Amino acid sequence: MGKVQVITDSTADIPKDLVEELGISIVPLKVHLGNESFLDSINITPAEFYQRLQQAEEMPTTSQPSPIDFVEVYREAAKDGETDILSIHLSSSLSGTFQSALLAQSMVEDEFKVTVIDSKTASFGIGMIVVEVARAAKEGKSLDECVAIAQRMIENHQVYFLVDTLEYLQKGGRIGKASALVGSLLNIKPILSINSEGEVCPKDKARGKNKATGRVFDLLKQDAPNGLERVAVLYSNNREEADTWVARIKDEFEMDQVYLAEIGPVIGAHAGPGTLAIISLPKES
User: What is the value of pTM for the model shown?
Assistant: First the structure.
């Protein structure tokens, strides 16, 4: 039995200190602004992206890694011959990234084994899963044990997010079952989620951001009658609002640790500026 090397893609939006601490390998997606292309969070930072987004005349677009991009990372991870590779990626309902990883898996299957998992979520929804799996791998857990941790978190985690506008999700084609909300007026704020199929879907709505925020916290409490095992707050270009959410979670749920993650350029290209999200893993009874 070899060690487990955890691989993900850049849409997991994992803070760099955790990537380095846990030895996570990242395959970047690309974001395109006008005639320029950038590797997600490698040669454009989230702050630079949101600044340029506000000045852009066209909507940004994104593209997935090629199977060869994955093959190169898989071969690097497998070069010592004693590594089990676990590759966890952005929801297949939102991107072809998972399919690229599967194709790469088939291209190296005669050389070594790769296990590929569809996270059925996005941003630090993936990241929180990857971080916990990478911690388990670092502690010496087996591939089967790491896969079991990932599957439990995929099945049980919850996502709620607020966007300033549905325009980015709509034009990027990622709006899924939330399409009925397009065109809502009168300051109605949709509360969005990601369903069990990994699609964006409407969960609720409220008039104004303050009421929408209150409703998000109501939903969190309904989901977690026994409290929260893990929780994260995500933000785009609105760190101060995110800090307020972190403080509220710590107070209302008596949590010592709340992950704080910045939404990177690729996810930000579809969610837009001003996005806030909570990823939670309720405690089991």
Answer: 0.93
